[in-house]
Structures are given as structure tokens and as C-alpha cells.
Design goal:
two-stranded antiparallel sheet, rod-shaped, alpha+beta, about 130 residues, single chain, about 45% helix
Length: about 130
């Protein structure tokens, strides 16, 4: 029975670490989707006169960095297609593997744990007050 435990224990630890990281990733993805859509809605739908999409990206990134600032996660925001008043904002959340929240790990007992990324896009039609077409 001791030999079986010695063989099975590392496998159980690896499965537990993967399950915890996947569960953490799924929870953070759901929270990131909501926070990203809210940040875009608040900061990019009605920019000030003379303000471009780059300044909106800076404000959105600051709002997300405030909320997703743990040591095992990072966030980035980009904008594309900002012609004609429509802009597509893309937010990317990257989670680095963690060992039950006790620090970053790239492998556990010889099994590599890759970084996990999640991207969400949101397209808005920016209303610019004072600008006539």
C-alpha cells in the first residue's frame, strides 16, 4: 500500500495543481470579461473633444490594472480599426501558473504548466461631442 501511495501521490498533486489553476483561470476570465466591457463602455464610448483612441486605451488599461494586479496575472489592451468612428478594443488577460497561490511555478514534478491567455474584443461607435460630419 505504501508503494501504491508513493506512485499515486505525485500524480494526484499534479492533477490538483492543474485543477486549481484551471478553476482560477475560468473565474478570472469571467471577471475580466465583465470588467473589460464596463471599462470600454465607460472610457471609450464618448471621448472628449480632440481625444483619440490611444488615450482611451490608456484609461482602460489603468482601470483594468487596478482590478487585476495580482502577481500571477497581467492585462494588456489594444485598439484596432479606429476609422469612421468605430473602434475595436481588445483586452488580453494572461495568467501565469501558481502552486496553490503560493508563488509562480512553470513546472510541477516535471510537468510543465504553460501560461494561459484569454482575449476579449468589444467594438464601439465613439460619439465625439462637438464634431460634425
Amino acid at each position: 500500500m505504501t508503494v501504491e501511495l508513493a506512485v499515486a501521490f505525485p500524480v494526484l498533486v499534479i492533477i490538483a495543481v492543474i485543477a486549481v489553476n484551471v478553476t482560477l483561470f475560468l473565474g478570472e476570465c469571467a471577471a475580466y470579461d465583465n470588467a473589460f466591457c464596463e471599462a470600454v463602455r465607460v472610457n471609450a464610448t464618448s471621448p472628449a473633444y480632440g481625444e483619440d483612441a490611444g488615450q482611451s486605451v490608456t484609461r482602460i488599461d489603468a482601470a483594468l490594472a487596478e482590478r487585476f494586479n495580482r502577481e500571477f496575472e497581467s492585462s494588456s489592451v489594444s485598439v484596432s480599426g479606429s476609422t469612421g468612428g468605430k473602434a475595436t478594443f481588445t483586452g488580453t488577460l494572461t495568467l501565469h501558473p501558481t502552486l496553490f497561490g503560493m508563488g509562480l511555478r512553470s513546472s510541477v514534478l516535471g510537468v510543465s504548466l504553460p501560461n494561459m491567455t484569454h482575449a476579449v474584443s468589444f467594438t464601439v461607435d465613439s460619439y465625439k461631442p462637438g464634431v460634425f460630419l
